[in-house]
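Hi U.,

Before I forget, here's the chain from the pilot set. I'm dumping it here mostly so it's searchable later in email.
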Amino acid sequence: MTVQSRRSMKEMLQKRMEADQIRYRRIGSLYRQDLLGVKFFKCKEGDNLVDIVTYTSGDNDPVSPNDLAFVLKIFIHRGLSQTGGDLICLEQTFGKKFRCPCCEEYRRKINIGAPEAETRSLRYQGWPRTFYNIYDRKDPGAGIQVWHTSAFLFQQYLDVICRKSVLSGQSQGIENFIPYMDPTLDGRSIAFRREGTGEKTKFIGIRFEDRVTEVPESVVKSAHALDELIFFPTFEQAYEEFWGVPYGEEEVLERSAKFVGEDDKAVEEKESAEEEEERELREKLTAIEAKKKKGTKEDSKKDEQKREVKSTNGCPYGHEFGVDIDEKPDCDKCQSWKDCANENDRLERERRK
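Structure:
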């Protein structure tokens, strides 16, 4: 056995301890499990004052690899991993050329007409998760720290306040943009207040403040390529994490065949039920239409009979001529109304004698 110095052994044990702590702390999160030497910003309740530090993105950046960046945005499916953690939505993060097992299952459920209660949890979250390199002005000795939050809570407000008001006739050019992420004095510190914890967290009073000093060069140089801190799975890895079984193995194919069989059966049953419903509806409509036609013929026949059969006193509809004037619906269309009115006047005169 090789004898190691006490110092080298101590260093090895410290690294192992740090790796284990990070591994257990990061299980179920979006970060890689082998991260060492990364400090994570814990946003405290109360007032905060931070600078967002720019960095050079890595090969996995979904917007612009190997370029100047200041925020990493990742879309997720909430709580769909086998351990109840979040899964990266590869399709929404990188574009539709990337397959996502969660999105594919969501569309499958939609296609077979599954109820919303089954499909709702499969949707990707509308607001992306955001990652920043942070320089905490209230704890400058901490150096660069990585902060993970939601675009809904923070970035959406920065996107608004970094744009100066545009006057009538003025275009929205670079002169109207506040480069808050610039590490020089041209940039801005961000002041805000955190209230609540967990799902009740909210950031209020988000505003820019002039910097007293630039972000130290040593801090800027130590900024992380944020996409290199994240574990981006392949489709096969994401599939296994979602379903709990490897992609492409026989049991998966059987499982998929079972799903397809169930889908086909469900579709067939649905189509059969729809066809039966449509057939019943057609029969009902046919019966209603026949009844209408029959009723129309009978009504026409009755009208003709009324016109043909006149009462002894001359009403073409069989009512009492000169007495029922303006009392029956037929009076509105009666061609003998004037004669009936004259008869009514005559009868009235006789009653007065």
